[in-house]
Amino acid sequence: MNDPLNTSRPSPQPSDGGPEQRAAGMPPVFRFNLAAVLDLAEHAVAAEQHVDLDGNDPTGPALLIVANTIVCLTSNGLPPLPPSPGQPPPHTVRVVHPDTLGPDQPRRDGSDAVIALPLRRPDAPLIDDLRAAAREGLNAVTISISDATVAFSVTRVPPAPGTPHHS
């Protein structure tokens, strides 16, 4: 992942992950609210301790992609954030689900995985990029997961018709 945050190219469109897409070999694309993702990232950066995923090399502050049939994001900061009000069970820590939940949410085929996106790598300071994207008015994070690759980008999604617009 050479360019973990790409704000210059259009983000892939969220998809239904349906049989046609899987047959074409296209991974589903998950879209998350940038403000909610940034809250998780700020928590991870501020935490003094972090979940160590592999027991060998401390990850440092990171967003964790929890991927099974659905995908959600969480912080690896300790102590963990409590669930947000109205967060669906069964999570006992704060997670951010994709914008689309329910039968229309993209599905991911493959084995369960927890993937760390480090927030303070010297070559790609993701936390700085997320903060800059929020300042620029971007509002959505898109993530696509295939067997060997995680594609991550930030974009601006216009509000749905009939939704109040906040600038």
Report what the structure shows.
With 167 residues, the chain is of the alpha+beta class. It has a domain at 33-135. 17% of the residues lie in helices and 23% in strands. It has 3 helices and 8 strands. The chain has helices spanning 19-23, 34-46, 126-135, and strands at 29-33, 49-50, 62-67, 71-75, 77-78, 113-118, 140-145, 150-155. A 3-stranded antiparallel β-sheet has the order 1-7-8. It has a 3-stranded antiparallel β-sheet with strand order 4-3-6. It has a two-stranded antiparallel ribbon with strand order 2-5. Helix 2 packs across helix 3 (126-135). The chain is globular. The termini are far apart. Residues 1-23 have low confidence and may be disordered.
Number of helices: 3
Number of strands: 8
Instruction: Spell out the helices and strands N to C.
Output: HEHEEEEEHEE
Strand content: 15-25%
How confident overall, as mean pLDDT?
78
Largest sheet: 3 strands, antiparallel
Please identify the structural class as seen in this structure: alpha+beta
Strand line-up in the sheet with most strands: 1-7-8
Separation of the first and last Cα atoms: 31 Å
The helix fraction, in percent, is 10-25%
Which stretches of 5+ consecutive residues score pLDDT under 50? Answer: 1-23
Radius of gyration: 16 Å
**Cα shape:** globular
